[in-house]
Amino acid sequence: LTNDSDSMKIDANGHVTMPKQSAFLVTPSTAQNNISINANTTIAFGTEIFDQNGDFASNTFTAPVTGKYQFNINIRLNNVDSAADYYTIYLITSNRDYYALEDPGQYNGDIDYKTYNFSVLADLDASDTAYVRFYQSGGTAQTDTAYESGGTTFSGYLVA
After folding, report:
1. Alpha carbon distance, N-terminus to C-terminus of the chain
2. How many angstroms separate the CA atoms of 56 and 41, rounded?
3. By C-alpha distance, which of 43, 33, 29, 38 is closest to 144?
4. CA distance readout (Å), 45 to 27, 60, 102, 103
5. How many other C-beta atoms lie within 10 A of the C-beta of residue 107?
6. Is 60 exceeded by the pLDDT of residue 125?
7. Would you state the pLDDT for residue 14?
8. Entry pTM
9. How far apart are CA 44 and CA 94, in angstroms?
10. In angstroms, what CA-CA distances link 76 with 6, 18, 97, 119?
11. What's the helix, strand, coil split of the chain in %, to 5?
């Protein structure tokens, strides 16, 4: 018990919950339309589904303690431009960057939508940050992020 609030609970069946353990799931509250080409664009996450421990704000997760954090990125893009040289979805952390890369030129034409997803187990120090960024090389500024339920999400939690 810390400050009259539970830090860890073990029920009669041995189930352990830690209400102050960092965990979050966020989605955009609106689409980002016609994202600029040849420029880094931070993906805006305006809706918190949950933010246990309050570590997510202004599109950025801030690690409360040093540890290993699991991050999951699921980005749905609409109006994917087949003339683009490549698309990159990044997880930017204080220690290193992670990314998923694709050449949309492999398609016979523009496609209505495409989902990019990847997961990372990242090492963060206390106060390190993590956020999601998009980059389109070349082509036309026509790509949008989807904000429909479940289409675009960013989640994470402290593992160890």
Report:
1. 21
2. 18
3. 33
4. 5, 9, 23, 25
5. 13
6. yes
7. 67
8. 0.89
9. 18
10. 37, 31, 20, 15
11. 0, 50, 45
